[in-house]
Design brief:
With 704 residues, the chain is of the alpha+beta class. The protein has 13 helices and 40 strands. It has an eight-stranded mixed β-sheet, with helices on both faces. A five-stranded antiparallel β-sheet has the order 1-25-26-27-28, with no helix packed on it. Helix 9 links the parallel strand 37 and strand 38.
Length: 704
């Protein structure tokens, strides 16, 4: 709950009413005979899913390599010596752990002294498997929201089958029990903030007229213990056209509440903020692409994703700005602003956390990780680099409110990930944990290249070359990317991909596409809405570049991506089917003329545009992959992977795509997991099965 987000958080989706006919240029049943597959759990749709799963298992699971690949993947997922990442709380270190004996997982705790050892002693706080069995539910643990500063009383989020929507129930971390008669909220999107031990600020589905078109809450209430949620007074109301709206509390590291802040998500990337002052909401004079980002040493921080001119100063996009907290509370819009940090060339901030004394910011510098520590004193802001490994991806794994302690994750493609602990009081850094090696990297190499996109922009990409790779176009190669929502795709330990793919002679390529966040807000904003085709052009340019360098050939090139990455793969193989011989399309968006009606697609209009508006439909229609599945083209037998419990992108996109391919007589593969949801909250055995199916498909298409 302490991590300060510097990026847009990818939103989620549920099924809305299917219109009886086309309207506003959006296809209806007359134009699309497969709309019935948008009903996630209808008997007819589930019967169809069962038939498709059986067909695909017959083609892939009977491959003699399948059981070996599944066992190799499962051994990695169930490994007892993988890093148990933790959160730092006043009463110890907490971890969520899944293995073969605990497929749904354990919430457990230990001490720092024990954690330093090779065999920490863990105490179970919540056994999700036992809870699911006792209650007869498919519970998936989705985290908790706890009352600062003790973090003893928490609202535990439980998802039925892996959906984004959760049930919230009050839990006592000390007694390790759900509170008898405590706060409980039924399944919904939205969350809560603890005002005090007996009061919550709640944003949920309160019934008709309280959800946006994107199916998120847009009202907030104050709920007092012992009262009915229906009687809780409303304190803020956004607009039904918002993506979401709500209220949260601005707290410092001691748990002290300094303000109530309301927000309106007017689009996926734009927000309006207001602060409660003198009995009224005062709108904050902030850029639309900005956010308050925490308190350190009496300074309130703002993060901005666009240039901001205020008080005679211009702050650049991606900057961090400080405001004296006392002055801000007295005059929220008039307090003087100070530049804390601004990006250099090819730099962007990735994330941040605040400890008892300092602000730590992770940066990307030409897609390589760095950490900078910021402190505020009488002379203003000072900064210093934190000495961590170079040429790696660095993330903030945990931090303390009570001390200047931070844990950093360090990873790259070939070396097992490690966990580094900074003791701020001692000024020391130690390696606490190192993950086991999942594959043999000897002879493998990582290289970085650039491709030239259609408009001349240079697009960087990494190539992980297997041992003994020949530059003759014969290497089976898997190309991945994302290119959306200002989310970067960064080098990280390849783990199961290394074991299942690289060790068998395959190469792996990661493209850093526009639309992502590898080089800051402008790298994202130059490839959204009317310019979204630039993302697809970038990906195609990388594929072309791989061929031109003789790293691989169309016969041996496959692509893989999920969610926005699934849309990326869909646009690539429908626009340039000649470039690829395999395409793994995971939990995708695919029908972009109806995406706003499926799952939570309406929340992403800020990224893609609105197909109900003719001008914007003209941006989308030329690339919408579903409409590009037509007769007369030979597509590379794509493999679609979906989840029935996915209430975000929704399985309808993948289902309709394969139904259309079947109609055209085109080869395809399809598998839909009944649980897991968009985030893949399945047990390790099911994860291993799904991964083995996908790599068998790739081997059959690219290696055999």
């Amino acid at each position: 709950m302490k991590l300060v987000s510097m990026l847009a958080v990818a939103a989620a989706m549920t099924l809305t009413t299917i219109p009886a006919a086309a309207h506003d240029g959006v296809p209806g049943p007359e134009q699309d005979p497969y709309i019935w597959l948008e009903e996630a759990r209808s008997d007819k749709a589930l019967e169809w899913v069962g038939q498709q799963n059986e067909r695909t298992l017959g083609m892939l699971a009977k491959d003699p390599r399948f059981e070996t690949l599944k066992a190799e993947a499962l051994a990695i997922y169930d490994s007892d010596d993988r890093i148990p990442y933790v959160s730092i709380r006043p009463d110890g270190l907490y971890n969520f752990w899944q293995d073969k004996d605990n497929p749904r997982g354990l919430v457990r705790k230990t001490t720092l002294a024990s954690y330093r050892s090779n065999a920490p002693e863990w105490e179970t706080v919540l056994d999700v498997d036992a809870l699911a069995e006792a209650e007869g539910r498919e519970w998936v643990y989705k985290g908790s929201s706890c009352l600062a500063p003790e973090l003893r009383h928490c609202m535990i989020a439980l998802s039925d089958g892996g959906k984004d929507a959760t049930v919230l129930r009050e839990f006592d971390m000390q007694t390790r029990q759900f509170v008898d008669g405590g706060f409980t909220l039924p399944e919904s999107q939205g969350g809560v903030s603890w005002l005090d031990a007996d009061t919550l600020i709640v944003g949920r589905d309160f019934g008709e007229g309280t959800l946006t078109e994107s199916e998120y809450p847009f009202t907030a209430r104050v709920w007092t213990r012992g009262s009915a949620i229906a009687d809780a007074p409303e304190i803020f109301r956004g607009d039904p056209t918002d993506v979401s709206s709500g209220v949260y509390l601005l707290r410092d590291g001691t748990g002290t509440v300094h303000a109530r802040v309301a927000y309106r998500g007017v689009s996926f990337h734009e927000r309006e903020y207001a602060v409660w002052k003198d009995g009224a909401w005062v709108k904050l004079d902030l850029p639309a692409k900005s956010s308050p980002s925490g308190i350190v040493d009496g300074q309130l921080l703002y993060s901005i994703d666009e240039d901001w001119t205020t008080g005679g100063q211009t702050f650049p996009a991606d900057a961090l700005i400080g405001v004296d907290l006392a002055a801000w509370k007295a005059d929220p819009n008039g307090a003087a602003k100070t530049l804390v940090w601004a990006p250099g060339d090819r730099q962007t901030k990735q994330g941040a956390t605040i400890t008892s004394d300092s602000l730590y910011v992770t940066l990307l510098d030409n897609v390589r990780g760095k950490v900078v520590k910021f402190d505020h004193g009488p002379g203003g802001w000072t900064q210093a680099s934190v000495p961590l490994p170079a040429n790696a991806t660095i993330g903030i794994a945990a931090s303390s409110d009570e001390r200047d302690d931070v844990m950093f994750s360090v990873t790259d493609f070939l070396n097992p990930s490690s966990l580094h602990f900074l003791d701020g009081e001692k000024g020391t850094i130690e390696v606490l944990k190192t993950a086991p090696a999942n594959f043999v990297p000897e002879g493998m190499a990582v290289e970085q290249y650039e491709a030239t996109s259609a408009d001349g922009t240079k697009i960087p990409y990494f190539v992980v070359k297997p041992a003994g790779m020949k530059m003759d176009g014969s290497t089976p190669t898997l190309l991945g990317g994302y290119g959306g929502f200002q989310v970067p795709r960064l080098p990280s330990y390849l783990g199961s991909t290394g074991k299942l793919w690289l060790e068998r002679g395959g190469a792996y390529v990661l493209a850093n596409l526009r639309g992502g966040g590898e080089f800051g807000p402008n790298w994202h904003q130059t490839a959204i809405r009317e310019n979204k085709q630039r993302t697809w052009d970038d990906f195609i340019a990388v594929a072309d570049d791989l061929k031109q360098r003789n790293l691989t050939s169309a016969e041996h090139l496959g692509i893989m991506g999920g969610s926005q990455g699934g849309l990326l793969v869909g646009t690539a193989f429908t626009q340039r089917p000649d470039l690829f011989n395999a395409a793994v399309v995971q939990i995708p968006l695919f029908d972009m003329l109806r995406y706003h009606l499926i799952g939570r697609g309406a929340s992403w209009v800020g990224e893609y545009g609105d197909p109900r508006i003719a001008e914007q439909r003209a941006w989308i229609e030329p690339y919408s992959p579903y409409q590009k599945l037509v007769a007369g083209k030979d597509f590379p037998a794509p493999f679609f992977v979906a989840s029935t419990a996915d209430d975000r992108t929704h399985p309808a996109h993948a289902r309709k795509a394969v139904a259309k391919l079947a109609e055209l007589g085109q080869p395809y593969y399809y598998f839909e997991d009944m649980t897991g949801g968009h985030s893949g909250g399945v047990d390790n055995e099911q994860r291993a099965k799904l991964q083995a199916l996908q790599y068998i498909y790739l081997m059959q298409r690219l290696m055999d």
